[in-house]
Amino acid sequence: MSNTIWSVDEHLDDILAAVRPLEPIELQLxxxxxxxxxxxxxxxxALPPFDNxxxxxxxxxxxxxxxxxxxxxxxxxxxxxxxxxxxxxxTVGPGQAARIMTGAPLPPGAEAVVPVEWTDGxxxxxxxxxxxxxxxxxxxASGEVRVHRxxxxxxxxxxxxxxxxxxxxxxxxxxxxxxxxxxxLAAIGRGTVTVRPRPRVVVLSTGxxxxxxGEELGRGQIYDSNSFAxxxxxxxxxxISYRVGAVTDDAAVLRDTIEDQLIRADLLVTTGGVSVGAYxxxxxxxxxxxxxDEPGSGIDFRxxxxxxxxxxxxxxxxxxxxxxxxxxxNPVSSYVSFELFxxxxxxxxxxxxxxxxxTARAVLKTDKALSSPADRRQFLRGTYDAQAGTVRPVGxxxxxxxxxxxxxxxxxxxxxxxxxxxxxSEVEVVLLG
Length: 433
Known about the structure:
Blueprint: E1 5-6, H1 8-18, E2 25-28, E3 36-37, E4 41-42, E5 52-53, E6 57-60, H2 62-65, E7 74-82, E8 96-100, E9 112-115, E10 144-147, E11 157-158, E12 169-171, H3 179-187, E13 192-196, E14 200-206, E15 210-211, E16 222-223, H4 226-236, E17 240-247, H5 251-261, E18 267-271, H6 281-286, E19 298-304, E20 306-307, E21 311-317, E22 322-327, H7 331-349, E23 359-364, E24 370-371, E25 377-385, E26 390-393, H8 402-407, E27 410-414, E28 420-421, E29 426-431
Parallel strand pairs: 1-19, 7-8, 14-17, 14-18, 15-16, 18-22, 20-25, 23-26
Antiparallel strand pairs: 2-13, 3-13, 4-12, 5-11, 6-8, 6-9, 7-10, 19-21, 21-22, 23-29, 24-28, 25-26, 25-27, 27-29
């Protein structure tokens, strides 16, 4: 345990200098959601791959419908149907039309599509409103269609390659794959893609007083909320998270549990047991785990110039030097610590460029000045109004007030040199969106 007091920024820099992005792997599209692309993807098939109809209607030649009107419709012979997915296509000659469905390829000879609403639908009556099912001709209908309006060349035709052309850059390296990106990859025929995988984060809470939600509370016991909050926060940051419910205050048990978890962890997060009390089991279990052959390895427990969250631990553990962050046990301290230190580490493992939450400047709306300890960077919970550019504190400054945290959507940052923030003054806020 070093006696130096670290700043928030020094501690974060130390973490990010030690965390490396995960090695890229090839994944099937459904598994690549939320991952970061490590290659530029170019288009190998044009979209759409052929000229196709944007309407249900009739594929026609422009000359055959020139001058057509309700009074003097153009009468065309219907030579067949073209459905989406059609293979063999009829050729449309002079005086002819082919019934065509939306998305179906434009048949040879045709130059435009007239929507069914511009025709009698082949029923020999007035204007049609919908296409009849294939092969369903009304009583007395001929194999003819009356067209009531002219069409320009290429009307209602989606041109081949009008979305993307072969050789176009579809997605650049560094793109996070969300639903539209997954859809584009599928549309251009890519079944797999090379990405950095989602980091696997194991969250362990410690404390003999902790009980799992849903069980009966005994005397002096509380529910384990931290492991749930932090596992959810890790998932929210883009990780695959594994929650290990409360481990008792026994250093040997904790060390064994951590060693068991290393097999499935790219990052370990513990909560509780890091300050200077007699039962600070995490510190006791991990102070001596450095690798003999690795100078500087092991877990370093420190004090930070911040409130809440002064006690923190960071280092690496196990044969693969898996990074471990030891957070304090107070629910709000652990959550604030997660936002400041663990989330950027997860985003770094993912290979993202921007690992930080967005920040904004806001005018402080409060009845009385907020006090802040000298030489500590204080993080208070707040609600931010983007329209008005204002922020209001919620709850007090206690590190255990978890009810207020559930109301907050930002952290109000009071810097080390600020001991009082007056109503109406401008403050920095970290948006937890």
